[in-house]
Amino acid sequence: MLKRLTASLVAITLSAPVAVLAQVALPAKPTVYNNPQLPNDPRVGLKGGVTDAGIAESGMHLIVNLPKPPGFAAGTTPQEAAPPPPPPAPVPGAPARPPRALQLGSTNSDLAFSGQYIIVGNYNGFNIYDASNPEKTKLTTSVMCPGSQDDVTVYGHLLFLSIESTGSRLDCGTQGIPLPPGFVAPVRQGPPPAGAPGAGAPPQRSPRAVEPPNPERFRGVRIFDISDILHPKQVAAVQTCRGTHTNTLVTDPADKDNVYLYLSGYAPIRSSEELAGCSAGGVDDPNTALYTIVVIKVPVAHPELSKVVNSPRIFSDPATGAMNGLAVGNLHGEGAAPQPVSGCHDITVYPAIGLAAGACTRVGILLDIKDPVHPKRVAAISDPNFSFWHSAMFNNAGDRVIFSDEWGGGGQPRCRAADPMTWGADSIFTLKGAELTLDSYYKMPAPQTELENCTAHNGNLIPVPGRDIEVQSWYQGGVSIMDYTDPKKPFEIAYFDRGPLDSTKFIDGGLWSAYWYNGYIYGAEIARGLDVYKMVPSTFLSENEIAAARQITMSQMNPQYQEKIVYPPTFVTGKAYVDQLVRSNALPAAKGTALMAAMDKKKTKELKAFAVALNKDASSASPADAARMTALAAILTR
Fold first, then answer.
1. CB atoms within 10 A of CB 149
2. Of 23, 301, 429, 592, which one has the fewest beta carbons inside 10 Å?
3. How many CB atoms lie within 10 A of CB 623?
4. Is residue 266 part of a domain?
């Protein structure tokens, strides 16, 4: 039965007397806005297919799709040489698990950007594409180096890849790590019989088996030198106890010789026999690899000297020092007892404001990163509408944060007509100091089928001056572009979607990531390869606004490392403000037309008169329009 749950948030800061997130109670009535579902949307009912699926798009247009190359595409990967092992027998009494989706080759993962090059991570390694002409993007380099999830980050001539799989090898070999003869994985135990201690308790998932030690195994961060883009060379491999699901670049303005990486993940901890110092102990073990992230220091000139320099206890209770100081239950109203948070999925840093936002499985957190080696938690939030805190993003002003919920882990259909619009969604918060206040939820609004894995996933800002706009991937829900300039009422302004990979069976796919970079949107499609899109004018976004956004160019870009965007005081920027003021009725259309003409003809006297009027009108305008008016007036009087 569809039941709309509403947010009940527990927020804590370091000044709080107790740093534990208590089990959350649900309020009786909705407290914040969430956008409505659109059952008659053009995206509903699209034809399935890998290369010939139906397409619906609005406000953006697909201009290039490049299928995955050999070694990564279906029928060409090393893993397909042998049949997969049979799935383990289900635990008696445990709830039935949904069927696993089929795979088409090796999974495309995240993206990083360096100059004209687009770097696409993949569970088998990475591919580099030349987008010097985005409309003729082409494959440049393929590197086979298996190990999920090959999350990619770039800095200068260095490329970093996150590895957590137990089958990954130091030498990048494709043969995996063979199990020793006679090795038998532990048998999963079912619930105790009736009358026995513990009978009647919910079935618990058994711990994942830790494979026997092997000196050839690699789990951690690979470092490649990509100075020669055609021949990347692995120059370092930093081992860690859990490996790493994602990595985040962090810089220190006072340290030009080194960069840092925050490593997030929650995979099983390896044996100390395989990597000295690793421990899966509990809270009484000061050396446990649980309840922490990992900080790696990378000497830029000598990456071979990279090493772990800290494992900060960012989940600790500031009053007691207990490292498991954050615990939360009641996710999706499950009513479960609070469970401690032991790791993060992803961290986004914004050095310009000295903060990072962490999506840490059961909670969202804020970190003070002014000292990159020793990040300190300054706030934490919980929400019963979230099942898995996946990623985070700041707006350019640094006064709003978006957290996303990866309901279903990304591999399940969670955007169906009956699925709540506050589950598997984005939550939008206002940030003031270290206090986060929930304003609204946003979810891709077009219902998807049972054959399409769908939930909120990766995205970044589109740098339109005067607005907060995010482009975001939703797996087989496609791409959705959201305006959240008013954080209390976000709405969709553009989208792209395909039908399912197959109309008869469930195949895993869709957009892992969708990011704006230097005027275009690039999407890593899990099964179909690399997409390139361009924005097109619409009711919600003008040609002038698109042109203003395209002024912003970067030499490199990692979406989890946000740089402060400074808009040039040009007439291109000014025309975007004019369109926005006319759209919001803060400026009459006739005056907008006259102002545009004055800018085109550079009529200085008229422009100064317009500036005086704009500054006067700003005093009675909405906050968003007032900011546009004052910024536009400054441009007109330069």
1. 23
2. 301
3. 10
4. no
Averaged pLDDT, 138-144:
98
The three-class DSSP label of residue 543 is: helix
Q: Is residue 612 a part of any domain in this protein? A: yes
Q: Count the Cβ atoms, other than its own, within 10 Å of residue 102.
A: 14
Is-contact 42 492, C-beta < 8 A?
no
In a domain, 613, yes or no: yes
Residues of the chain by 3-state class (helix, strand, coil), percent to 5? 15, 30, 55
What is d(CA 23, CA 294) in angstroms, rounded to the nearest whole number?
A: 28
CA distance 636 to 604: 8
Beta strands in 46-144 (DSSP E): 55-58, 60-66, 108-114, 117-122, 125-130, 138-144
DSSP assignment of 428-484 equals: EEEEETTEEEEEEEE---S---TTS-B---BEEE---TT--EEEEEBBBT-EEEEE-
The residue type of 497 is D
**Of 296, 286, 211, 300, the residue nearest 255 (C-alpha):** 300
Of the candidates 66, 193, 50, 53, the residue with the CA atom closest to the CA atom of residue 122: 66
The model carries a pTM of: 0.91
Length of the chain: 638
Res 17 pLDDT > 80: no
The total of structural domains in the chain comes to: 1
Pairing between β-strand 33-34 and β-strand 435-442 as defined by DSSP bridges? parallel
- Are 400 and 429 within 8 A, CB to CB? yes
Query: Is the residue at 383 inside a domain?
Result: no
What pLDDT digit, counting tens, does each position of 207-260 carry? 455 689 999 999 999 999 999 999 999 999 999 999 999 999 999 999 999 999
The C-alpha angle 196, 202, 206, rounded to 5 degrees, equals 90
Domain that holds residue 630: 571-637
User: Per-residue confidence at 135, pLDDT binned at 50, 70, 90?
Assistant: very high
pLDDT in tens, 578-611: 999 999 999 999 999 999 999 999 999 999 999 9
Give 76's Cβ-side CA count (13 Å radius). 12
Q: What number of H helices and E strands is found in the chain?
A: 5, 34
The structure tokens 């130091």 sit at: 170
Q: How many CA atoms lie within 13 A of 55 on its CB side?
A: 12
Q: Residue 506: name the closest of 420, 434, 412, 402 by CA.
A: 412
* SS3 per-residue string spanning 172-223: CCCCCCCCCCCCCCCCCCCCCCCCCCCCCCCCCCCCCCCCCCCCCECCEEEE
